Amino acid sequence: MAYDHSNELYLFHQGTYFKAYEFFGAHKTKDENGNTGTVFRTWAPNADAVYVTGDFNGWRADMPMNKISDRGVWELYTRIDFDNSCRTRYKYMLVKDGRASFKADPYAVFDGTHKETASYLYELPDFHWEDGGWLEHRGEAMYASEDKPPYSTPVNIYEVHLGSVKRHDDGTYCTYRELADFLVPYVKWLGYTHIELLPVAEHPLDDSWGYQICGFYAPTSRFGEPADFMYFVNEFHKAGIGVLLDWVPAHFSKDAHGLADFDGGMCYEYQGSDRKEHKVWGTRFFDVGREEVQSFLISNALYWLNEYHIDGLRVDAVAAMLYLDFDRAPGEWTPAPDGSNKNYESIAFFKKLNTEIFRQHGDVFMIAEESSDWPMLTKPVYAGGLGFNFKWNMGWMNDMIKYVNTDPLFRRYEHNCITFSLMYAFSENYILSISHDEVVHGKGSLINKMFGSYEQKFDGLRCFLAYMMCHPGKKLLFMGSEFGQFAEWNNNKQLEWFMTDFEKHRDLLNYTMALNHFYLSSPQLWERDLSWDGFRWIKADDKDNNTAVFTRMSGSGEFLVCAFNFSAVSHNGYRIGVPEPGVYKEAFSSYPTGRPAAQSEEIPCDGFDNSILLDLPPLSAVILGYEPVKKKKRTARLNAVSK
């Protein structure tokens, strides 16, 4: 066939072809005579020759591709037709200096996994989506209006690793469809607004959890076909639950069939030895300054949003991309031209990525997993920021894990772990994350991070979860933490669901559900979540009693008083200031007591004119709603006047 591809090639080589997956890879097509065939295209600028090999030609080098671009784009039209029901395998054979390598298709939408390293001839199905209502709601929830700022909606995320959340009795994987049928009602019952999936793009090693990828455009075949993953997303959307994906633009696997040394030279990876590899991860870094790599990655991000209706991406390892000296010793990295450790190519890439994402999809999440204090990460590009709209608050996470792991007798010396996060809580748009990274590699499960006896661990976790829900910022919790799994997360086993047969774990699960639904029904906890308009300290510095008390406010001025006792003893008759005179009733508690309502008194405390007395059990959270003082009717006087 002779078609003019000059526009596609120009955009690709300029780094602005944002639907490159529609051009590259293997696609069904018709020739000028109407005959159905397949066209293969790949980018291999260093190769001397490229061949298509597969089940259809006995894996022989008898189907040479034609070079259609001086900068290394190759193409072959064949009369091969294919059916999605058949697993027809193929690879590219790339020859450089007489040496041949066999590579899976970087743009394949369906790949084998584990030892099945080839790509499959597969055309994305014309899936019948039923999520129009969800997508309309998604847009309404994200945007600002005259009476509300942006992101003034509840966001409470359940983080899931599909390979270990649930398995068959014999230990084999559940399918995407089985996982959807299990997870959708469970997540809905628990009251989460979103799930976030550890990477689902095809990866050869289970123990990488999906972070060392070979097939960036292929949902892993561990759990089924692309159509099955579409079903998975569709079912969550039908239930009113968003689906977020972990996305990995920093690095890729060095497996022989993947992107490493793709065409016999440095193609997708950085060429300099100081930036080519990440020693600890054993992976290659993407050369995000190269235009063709930009087209590959930005197209990939949009691919998940366009083709699978994904609601946002959590971008992995942002700090590793922003800093030239990330995890490198002196002498192992080369400074930028200005002498700094900033990777200006990555800075430009993130701005380009986020600008294009929000140009096409203004209502999705772009979440940065970034462990430093890089400024203006979640500010718009036009305002000088990197353009993400959320960032994981890893500082808060580290402080709070340290605090709850400390003996309450000594928590007074760590009180800044509670207060420090409010020094920067509104400098970025934060998500408070208790993720998979905190419950693996010897760190122990979340409940085992709580100091104390068996009973105290459950009390402490309930208090901690309530504190997390009331602290400014959106929320994320890793699977298994909701029912207090004691065992550290193991990606090769399903969660210990049998633990919910035990009373303490079952009660914790029900508590998490009740807390989540309380959050959903309380606009005070999310309507003004990203500014001081929604938060005010009442008692910030009572370190000797291990307490923290503050208010959370909605846009209409309604407020909750949130009180936390992180000590192991009761504080009975504990006086706190309150913003308004009136009656304060228990709205939610981690330690239900049926305590009576408290009438405010005109006794100054904590800088307020009025105060109340509270009984705070050990390791407890008490959240109070407010009712204003009712004016007394002077009935007798009115009667006298009327006579």
Describe the structure concisely for a colleague.
With 643 residues, the protein is α/β, with parallel strands linked by helices. Helix content is 24%, strand content 23%. The N and C termini lie far apart (103 Å).
Architecture overview:
The structure is a single chain. 24% of the residues lie in helices and 23% in strands. It is α/β, with parallel strands linked by helices and 643 residues long. Among the domains are: 6-120, Immunoglobulins (Immunoglobulin-like), CATH 2.60.40.10; 533-628, Immunoglobulin-like. Strands 9-10-13-17-18-19-20-21 form an eight-stranded parallel beta barrel. The chain has a six-stranded antiparallel sheet with strand order 22-23-24-29-26-27. Strands 1-2-5-4 form a four-stranded antiparallel sheet, with no helix packed on it. Strand 26 and strand 27 form a beta hairpin. Helix 4 packs parallel to helix 5 (226-238) and helix 6 runs parallel beside helix 8. Residues 634-643 have low confidence and may be disordered.
